[in-house]
Amino acid sequence: MPSDLGTPQPQAASVSALRASFTRLQEDLRKADDSLTRALGCWGPEHSVGQDRFMEFIEEREVMAERLYELEYGARASIFGFQSGANTVAPVPTTMTAEEEPVHPDPARRKTGNPEAAYRVVVDRDFLAEPEALRALDERLASGHQVRVVDQPLIKLIVADEERAMVQVESDRAMILRPPLVALTVELFEAVWRRSRPYLREDGDLSPTDRRILQLMLSGLTDAATAHQLGTSSRTVQRRVRALMDLAAVTSRVQLGWYAMRNNWV
Q1: Cα distances (Å, whole numbers) of residue 61 to 98, 154, 160, 174
Q2: What are phi and psi of 149, to 5 degrees?
Q3: Which domains does the chain have, with CATH numbers?
Q4: Structure pTM?
């Protein structure tokens, strides 16, 4: 338990400054994300020439699911990924591959991931609102994956070994990138990773349920949405938030969020 529970409540100016800082970070990440999407949008199939082409377009969801599988399980060392909501190609909780994959039907392998690769995954608010999202993330943590959270929307991205990447630019259109363009996706991923927050820290005395509630609250989910994810009632969520506010000696959820992040509760 943090040792400074009895410290004075943060002043309104400090809370406002922190909120402004978060807003700037979110805007910076959104601009970086948009810049990559616009840059890729400037290229068309006419730029993919010959066997050594560095860009490939995919416009069918079944093909996209197959290529996701190939990227993930072909990786030798690392997988980086952004996950967002509305997962029509890779439904939750099968988060990197399709549920009905005709070429690779092994569900156990799809569930546990590539044992040869170290995973780093960033999810956004829309992903956290997906049915079974928390269970999918818990499965990732149990498999040793690193998971972090951001509040602004993300594009859907997977990078394998920093050598190949797949970016979903529209719901039914994606691009496979190879060097040198894949470096753009690596730089974007690292920038987002540095400014994200861990999903469910293991240190400290908070229960896993309270950490999940704080994580979803900070991501902007309503009490009803949070309750749905946790399989409980809105009243229970409100009661536990109230208990956390009392523990932190604060009077608002904004102050609770400030305290939680300052004291590594999330």
Answers
A1: 9, 19, 20, 9
A2: -130, 140
A3: 28-45+52-197 (3.30.870.10), 200-262 (1.10.10.10)
A4: 0.70
Q: Which of 118, 162, 173, 165 is nearest to 140 (CA)?
A: 118
Any bridge partners for residue 78, and if so which?
118
Place of tokens 């995919």: 58
The model's pLDDT over 87-127, given as tens digits with 9 standing for 90+, comes to: 665 555 454 433 334 344 444 445 568 999 999 999 998 89
Displacement of CA 119 from its chain's centroid (Å): 12
Nearest to 249 by CA among 1, 33, 63, 4: 4
